[in-house]
Amino acid sequence: MTATFGTTSTTKTPDLGPAVELVSKEEGHRQPLAPEFVSAEDFSPLEVAYDFGRVRREDIEAGPKNIWRYKKLLPVPSNVEEIPNTEPGATRLIRADRLAKELGLKRVWVKDDTGNPTHSFKDRVVAVALAAAREFGFEVLACPSTGNLANATAAAAARAGWRSVVLIPKTLERAKILTTAVYDGDLIAVDGNYDDVNRLATELAGEHPKWAFVNVNVRPYYSEGSKTLAYEVAEQLGWRIPPQIVVPIASGSQLTKVDKGFRELGQLGLVDASPYKVFGAQATGCSPVSAAFRAGQDVVQPVKPDTIARSLAIGNPADGPYVLDIVNRTGGAIEDVTDEEVVEGIRLLARTEGIFTETAGGVTVATAKKLVETGKLDPDAETVLLITGDGLKTLDAVENHIGPKATVPPSAAAVNEALGY
């Protein structure tokens, strides 16, 4: 197995801000910054290591109203905000009292990432990946995707003036296909599931040295974008870490980087390094990490996805073992919910807080409910739920469950009768 895919030639030293090297997650082997994602020493994933120097709250607060306010904590150029990009981040953190009451929790906050440019958290990770890819001399932005990443990659490439190549399973939700195709990049539907698409992307990354597959050959940089969710939550809470947070699991990368973000804030003295618990949420039809957690295992057995939550339908999650480590270390838990519960979670969040989430958000809400019912979430502890995508992308999940209360002729009497007056 080779550890390098799509290596480019560049005459300049990449400006990746505080990033200093790559480190293997298993044995800590160190190597220079490069477009590589697997260690040649121990064949484990690589992640970015930093020399942050001094970072102050006031410097962050004076920054732009997007993720680049945290550029001193990310592997991006020092002038990243000056280069055309989608400027994601700075999304709402909503105090959700009505939802809290329904769930049986004292205080709930909803991190509503539907407000990003393409309406999901993937805009964050793609923006960081593009910034790094530019420094490494790539010319094409590419990805395999279950939908949200396809939207974000195509949009970011269009904004930057790059070509995009996006690979998706042909069974992807129609809305996500259209909201990728509109950017006029190269959208390729593949006859297979996401794991098939991902394997194909890895093969293509080796054949095309100028293609930056955001979640393959530049994955270490891409994944760091998820840390900005943790940074924003902490800053929006008045520079403190929430005692409990519920995170949806697809590849598992988001959960691991939220944890990394919280730890970095504590290490830098930007927040008090208080304890917190991380909880994971999966759909039962694709719940290999939940199954491993329930069985007390430290390895994740691949499954064939069968769920309406297609954005989480990764049967062989790359970061599954690291999710298990974090959840166990922090004292959290992982649960899964049925498709019926997912729909109920979508409707519950919409009914109580006016937020229409896609199926992944339904998984998060429904899992939070189940965690409370099983005594795993502390009902008195402040809890944050990550809502990572917009419900307009997965209308098919709810179309047979909702609609007009009645159809009436155009008269006040008919309306009153339908309403029971």
UniProtKB/TrEMBL annotation:
UniProt protein name: Threonine synthase
GO terms for biological process, alphabetical: isoleucine biosynthetic process; L-serine catabolic process; L-threonine catabolic process; threonine biosynthetic process
EC primary class: lyase
Keyword terms of this UniProt record: Lyase, Pyridoxal phosphate
Cofactor needs: pyridoxal 5'-phosphate
InterPro entries in the record: Ser/Thr_Dehydratase (IPR050147), Thr_synthase-like (IPR004450), TrpB-like_PALP (IPR001926), TrpB-like_PALP_sf (IPR036052)
Source organism of the structure: Amycolatopsis pretoriensis
In-chain residues carrying the UniProt-annotated modification N6-(pyridoxal phosphate)lysine: K122
CDD domains, sorted: Thr-synth_1 (cd01563)
Pfam families tied to this protein: PALP
Matches recorded under NCBIfam families: thrC
Limits of the Tryptophan synthase beta chain-like PALP domain: 88-389
Keyword Secreted belongs to the record: no
Record-listed E.C. numbers: 4.2.3.1
